[in-house]
Amino acid sequence: MIKRATVYFAFCVILFLICAGSLCAQSYPRRIISLGPSITEELYLLGAGDHLVGCTTYCKRPEAKLKEKVGRAIEVNLEKVIALKPDIVFATSLTDPKAIKKMKDLGIKVTVFPEPKNFEEICEQFMELARLIGRQNRAREIIRRVKAQVARIKKGTKGLKKPKVFVEIGARPLFTATKGSFVNDYIEMAGGINIAANAGSGLYSKEEVLKGDPDVILIVTMGVIGEKEKKTWERFKTIKAVRKGQVYVVDSYKLCSPTPVTFVKTLKELVRLLHPEMKLGER
Q1: Same structural domain for residues 153 and 66?
Q2: pTM for this one?
Q3: What mean pLDDT do residues 31-43 have?
Q4: pLDDT mean across residues, the chain
Q5: Mean local confidence (pLDDT), 72-93
Q6: 251 within some domain
Q7: By mean pLDDT, which of 90-99, 173-182, 209-218, 273-282 is the weakest?
Q8: 99 and 216: one domain?
Q9: In the beta sheet, which residues pair with residue 54?
Q10: Residue 5 forms part of a structural domain
Q11: Does 159 map to a domain?
Q12: Can you give the CATH number for the domain in which 189 is found?
């Protein structure tokens, strides 16, 4: 009788653990829609790509190209979103607010990730995304690795001469990055000085660039416009960056839509542009 009771108790414990595990698993979203390229990339980094049922046309990862397209950076195709029956939609600060409201009114859970202001916020948002899908342990390990790499890069550039840098994010009107953006973190962590760091806004003028006389000019890719802008800057022969041949066109996805992992990769590329004498593997 005692033996039978012991077996029954053990069976109940096992059944409870199985049910508890099943309930925990069900508490996380199984069908996810991403409305931001960096969010899509982060879902794959966290091993949740199989749960992605829809994303934007700007999501470039090869696996994401096979997913249903539900819109662009701003526009959202609500009919497609509804048809996909998502457990959650991850939106960005670029997503049309009206579309977000309509989705919420329809009972669809939407979480909006605002534009991160710096590298630390990129990591914080990555952890929040991981928490929402139950991948915190994986996220912690990724962040631990990238922060260690960033620390090594900052240490390596510490004693080097800091070149003055100008980043062109938009052409008409001319738009740049100030100290309230993660692009400024890129420049400072790579051992440079952002000449527009203390500007009141991102709106800038060519006269201000000429006055700042940057050693390096970085132009964010805008298709053929990026190459045209490079040629436009190269006409200003008095700027050091032009005289030294240090006007570069950089990939907009790398610079403007970073994950913690791609932030480090892009940071390394910028170090090579700002400090070609520095050997990252040796420091």
Answers
A1: no
A2: 0.85
A3: 96
A4: 89
A5: 96
A6: yes
A7: 273-282
A8: no
A9: 33, 68
A10: no
A11: yes
A12: 3.40.50.1980
Q: State whether 109 and 145 are in the same domain.
A: no
Q: Is the domain of 107 the same as that of 164?
A: no
Residue 2 within a domain: no
Q: In terms of residue numbers, what domain contains 187?
A: 141-282
Q: Which of 12-26, 176-190, 222-236 has the lowest mean pLDDT?
A: 12-26
